[in-house]
Here is the input.
Amino acid sequence: MSDLAPLLVALPVFGSVVALLAGLARDRVGWAVAVLTLVVQTAVAGTLMADVLGSEAIRYVVGGFTVPIGIELVVDGLSATIALLVAVVSLGVLAYARRAGPRSNAFYVIYLLLVAGLSGMSITGDIFNMYVFLEITGLTAYALVASGDGGRSAIAGLKYLLVGTVGASLFLLGIGFAYIATGTLNMGDLATQLAEVGYGSPLVLAAFGLLVVGLFVKIAVFPLHTWQPAAYAGAPDSVSAFISALVSTVAAYALIRIVFTVFGTEFLAATPLASTVLAAGAVVSIVVGSLLAVSQSELKRMLAYSSVSQFGLIVGAVAVGNVVALTGAAIHLVGHAIMKGGLFLAVGLVNDVTGARTVDEYAGLAKRSPVGAAAFSVLAVAMVGVPPAVGFVGKWYIALGAVEAGAWPLVVVIFASTLLTLAYFARVVERIYFRDSTETSGLAPTATDGGEDDAPEPVVSVGMRATVVAAAVVAVALGAVAAGYGDLLEPTIEGLLS
Amino acid sequence: MTEIISLRPLLAVLVSAVAVAPILASRGRPNLREAWTILAAVTKFGLVASMVPAVLAGDVYVTDLGAFVPGVNFALEADALGLLFGLLASLLWVVTSFYSMGYMRGLDEDHQTRYFASFAGSVSAAIGIAFAGNLLVLFVFYELLTVATYPLVTHDQTTEARAAGRKYLTYTFGGGVAVLAGTVLVYVLAGTTTFTPGGIADLATTDPTLASAAFGLLILGFGVKAALMPLHSWLPDAMVAPTPVSGLLHAVAVVKSGVFGIARVTLDVFGPDAVADLGLGIALAFVAAATLLISSVIALRQDNLKRRLAFSTVSQLSYIVLGVAVGVSVAPDRAAAYALAGGLLHIPAHAFMKLTLFFCAGAIHVETHTDDISDMAGIGRRMPLTMTAFGVASLGMAGIPLIAGFVSKYFILVGTVSSGQLLFTGALLISGVLNIAYFWPVVYTAFFESPDDGNSKPLLESPFGGDRDVATDGGHEAEHGEHGHGDGWTTAGWRGGESTWLMVAPILFAAAGSVVLGIVPDAAVFLQIVRAVVEGVTGVVL
Amino acid sequence: MTGLEALADRLYYLAAFLLLGIGTYTLIGSQNLVKKVIGMNVFQTGIFLFFIAAAFITGASPPLLTAPAPYVSPLPHVLILTAIVVGVSLTAVALGLIVRIYDEYGTLNEETLREVQADE
Here is the structure.
């Protein structure tokens, strides 16, 4: 079974090449190739997940070079979860993107490469390899963000590229320090070697600081989030959904790996400053992200700041660093991906139906786009953390973990985050249902760029509606199975923390 | 006590939630839509009522759906206390459903489908609260109740309604956060949140400081919906909702869910002993006593009938909290049992009376578009049955014998006197006087004044001389002005000509309920349930 | 070891960090998008040199089989080869985007672009 692991990376790369070549011969073949690839990808990820949940991790050595020299792929419960999430979400977004576009072959080529990068980050056991996948993810994400029409998305893409590259470079620098200190790049090996070097060593501390800050940029923790609102708002709707659901999520997963697999709980115990920095990042992100979200008028920017706030919760769980909190982080990563991706898709759907993009234009939306409005509201309520939706379960675990650890300031902020989240979602939901539209006729669809090429407005397809509704249903339904999943994940997390 | 594994609690919760779908689906056919509501309401009541005999015999119905989060199962449990609330809410939902039809059609309201769907959802959540088997499940339904009632508060879609809705969400979700925080603390301290008669073992002893914090958070959280001062201010604002909502939800289901939560926390989570040990019961009683006095005073000054009723609700809810708080903060003897029984019995007693009052206010609004007391002079002639019911219920509120309010208040009084808490006795008596002071003017105005001299006693808050252009319902005034403010009310007979029977019958039913509870409390099943609860907690047989 | 010696010993690191500083400054301080990209390149180059310097062992020969042992560590060289490839692709994407932006707005000044965007 361990031979399946490299397929997670190889499949999308292969699919991407096929899409590229087939695109030379025929137009519009990209979508079919992508779907085919991702269906297989989902099956592979699902099989791996079934194999490793609750049992031993799968290890695969690439190219026959022995560890620690060679590159190792490690699939445990956590990485399998993320890999499956990546596969499922990317497949779901495809159903939406078929009609909503972008429809060029190049889009699907890059799309599959991004899936490869994300899957690679999820399963690699080598820190430099992680950097390479981080950059593949970054490069393709920049390109996708810029794939929208017009200058706005290009500027957003460039801004994302500049900030993202600095983040990745800092990550690389951190790898350099860790390498100088230990002479190894394998995560498992690093863990033992770092302990031998001593956690007080300046090299080790610098490595930790740089790796974490680099990932903070990628996760978009305040104040390193500056690329994110522009990128999410400037990208085409399908891309915003995809990126918001997965890119920061996988970066947050990488943070968990770096902090616990590479450095470990003993490092955190020996270096109180490390936990403090993480906790401070979490608190600031949760609070400031929400406050900024409240002040946004454009829906997609609001959702972007909401991500800043929600990932604060995850970072908070990492700062707490016990079994319960990390289980919560895993659940919230999955839950947030579904909810946020769904929200972006719902916003896209609404935009295609009515042209509404700002909070004020959502007034009376329930009449104009009932499906989009209902899905948005359900997902918003789930995100606020109303039980039994998955948003609540993740928060419950994280809060419980924080209380067990006695991290009181964090506890207060985690509970307050419910109200903060409510603050920016309630005003939208209120407008959707309890305010009449100011204009009698539907708004003219406004292209993001001021529209020099007026392509015929894509009609909303069944696939688009179905994806949005499915996201809402899954967000609620996952809440019921989250506890069972948490139990299965426990051995993995315990292994991570020992 | 035996546990009966049964799906009945679950079904009782789900019936109305399931009904939301057909209600939404039959949006184009009002009669079919309302038929679904009635069907769901009657089925629900039947299911809940079917559990009464066994529960009175000491059994508990349990539905366990397995783990929700580790260590906490999604368990529903119909015990005596839960059944008290569940039976009340489901019975009054039947009544309110009929009344809603009369009210909503009488006013030709928009968004009636949304209204009936949300109503069904709210009642589901309320029954979920009643039958929750542990604190976390209770929290789940507590939050869902907030979500389901929000559309009802904001129903009118006016600026005022939206502001009230926002306030409602902020307050109740804030309370929800406190409940969640308290639940987490309880779980961390005790390793479980399951309701245990007499309290979860070791909860208070492990870490008294944290336990006190947990208790404080839980009371704070439930106190929001129980409208304990200073957390009450959402309730008067929420009166912009249609009157059946104010009646069933903001006098019965929602606010009682807060009170019920407080009762659960004190009786089944911490338990009387622990609450007494931590010294928190008396503190709670003081808050309740202060609330019932202050809000009674504020009620005196409200000219808008529904707002006056709202402050009356704030006050009456604190009777319940006071009864429970006194009941758990003194030694578990007969005195405690009396106070507790009084507090719990006031849940149904107040529900019947306040529902009557709100139904009357709604009927007046539908028929005459009058909302302010100063405009109601002589309205007794126009709506004799309604105003008589109103009079009966107000007398009950004030604690006049033969009506429900007397029995419960008598129990609380006996409890406070015999446990030596004379301060609270005093507060209760003063509040009783205030109750008369703010209800009597309404009855007096309605029956013994005529519109001509109606303006002679302008209230401080009311527009001078009852200038109707500034009245809150100025919009309606123009079209319905000919209803006879100028020439006096048209006289309606005593046989229901004053309104549709869809509204009059529920009013009479609710009023009759308050009288039955007052005259033959032993025959009414609620007192028997209360006895079962009290016996379970204190061991005293009343 | 005197301070001067310590400095001389770490001269390569110093140079690498100077490049990091210069790169960061250009990236943040410059208004011109192309210059920002150049700053990014300088920044990355600093990191590359940092890795190469880390691999150096006094008296060792390059990691070639024809050269006599001891060798300097070959691994960082390999890593940096990969990183350079990544860096080149990033530069290519960035310049591609800049061309698009210039076509669209006719300017590469960040401040001007912000104003133009605000007007949209």
Q: What stands out?
A: Residues 3-119 of chain C form a domain with the Helix Hairpins fold (CATH 1.10.287.3510). The longest helix of chain C spans residues 75-105. The mean pLDDT of chain C is 84. The interface with chain A takes residues 20, 24, 27, 33, 36-37, 40, 43-44, 47, 50-51, 54, 73, 75-76, 79, 82-83, 86, 89-90, 93-94, 97-98, 100-101, 104-105, 113, 117, 120 of chain C (CB under 8 Å).
